[in-house]
């Protein structure tokens, strides 16, 4: 496959409604530069698949305009958009062999037989299925079908490939392997990829940037590490990775940090990310692995907690505690081999830095 | 049974030494017996009320015991007579005929024999009736030959005796030949004269009209099935009721409705005349001919095409067509190369169903077919109920059955019967 640069995509004020009563997509603005791997991540019903279908041309936008390489495509039918697509259940044509499936997009473009064969062979080799050309899709395993679907979406050298939860039907191990393969294909070919999933691990592993969708709105658009380290609101903090929630009221704001009084009276220092004025409600978000049992005086937050349960998980130990009235408070302790005297029922002191807990918008 | 494919010849045994296969069969026997007992009532019912009558009916197409049963001595005496000779049979044959006919007349079976032989050559019925009336007055001392020829000169005709000789065996191909517009003559099998041929034409017409009807059903049913499969559930249910509605209406009512619509003074003609498409003098003839049969039967058989098509289309995910379009196919290419091939099993099932129903259809062609729109089954019904030539009816039925089975076989070879999906 020749080195081809990807296409750019721009959504401008795009809205979508199916029934004229509710908006599934509320005013979407999104810029995807050429060659980017962008993932739309969100729970089901968040509008991410609808955004993808509008880009592919299978759903018309109710309002707004979508640009492909700076050209508006609202009135371009799907088959003229030249966008490759991998479907959830692969949608390999069951009555055609693997090679015929791959040749299909080349045939409809009127390509010569010899060129078709060459491209099909190369595409099959790319996904390491060189000898499977004459098989029917039904004779392949799930992972192989998946690769054929990817190869078919790439064989006509589109500048943009859309993937709609393509790994959803695979088992865990295969899914992880395919994640790397798709990522490598993206790196080698340089096409733009828009990838839709509800699996956060998938999104974090593969993407250049992730758009977290909820309720028809992009909650946060940033690189994977930023998404985890610096969630902009409670939904993102909750949706990406594991998270402890503590509710309270803002009592003082000092630049980037703020003082929060929890509902049981405990005072905490937190990074002020997304809060209102003094006196407004807030939810503190804290990653379980940032909490320490080896406390020392310099820590911003030191509070007591009662150990409720210890779960041994090999590389780490999960400790469920009751902290400031929340008895779903999780602490992850790395297993360093040292004996630690922790037992259920004990009350111990735990601590963490102010920068590790984010004061975000309140959750009901 | 290759339940235990073994590479080594050693026989596996259970712990007490019985071969494994034997004890497995013993263990399964009870289950087999129980399931057999469960289906036994239905099996017996079908055998008694369905399989046996059909077999009996089919046997009638070759059965011909009537000649030997009615005239046993004559048949015996005739065995020495050479069919190709130009000599009439000798006096012993006439004597045997006299003795046989005396018994037959007393039992009144001679008229039945007459009607049977009349299928093969006209005049036989009256010959036997006439002879039966006069047999009592014949001189028992003979000579019989002269007396018979005196009663009717046909007894002195070689053709009569050749006919008797030809149809004296217990089984005859006569009905089948008849059904194929041929007959057994002294020189072997020959086609009937042109103006007496009817069945081959009827078979050809039945096949042709059934194929036409199947094609019409496909052309009309495919879009409806497609619509049914792609509409949202609520509207699809409503449309489904409309498709099924004809099932809940009497066949006779529907066919009669077509009479009202299609006849020359009917609704459609009136309408066409009214809007001026055709003149009052040139009203279309749409009923009591092939057109009427095709229209009415297409209407009646349409659901049998739509339902299998629908059930197949319902299982085809819309993502196939989307995938095809995303790969650059136009609407038509996506349909023709991707969607249509996946509906072929439904087309196969629908076409077989409609064709087989059509080829044996009776009521509708009878009512709206006139003379050139009737099917072979109408002729079979005529021979069953009016002419009482059951042998011929059975022969026609066997040929029809054979034709269907043959087509089925051809279809299996070309399309593959396992490609047929009814749901």
TrEMBL record, chain A:
The enzyme's first-digit EC class, named in words, is translocase
Domain of life according to the entry: Bacteria
Q: Which UniProt keywords apply?
A: ATP-binding, Cell membrane, Membrane, Nucleotide-binding, Translocase, Transport
SUPFAM superfamilies recorded: MOP-like, P-loop containing nucleoside triphosphate hydrolases
Q: How does it sit in the membrane?
A: Peripheral membrane protein
Gene Ontology MF terms: ABC-type polyamine transporter activity; ATP binding; ATP hydrolysis activity
Q: Which gene encodes it?
A: potA
State where it is primarily located: membrane
Keyword Membrane annotated: yes
Instruction: Provide the catalytic activity annotation.
Output: ATP + H2O + polyamine-[polyamine-binding protein]Side 1 = ADP + phosphate + polyamineSide 2 + [polyamine-binding protein]Side 1
Q: What is this protein called?
A: Spermidine/putrescine import ATP-binding protein PotA
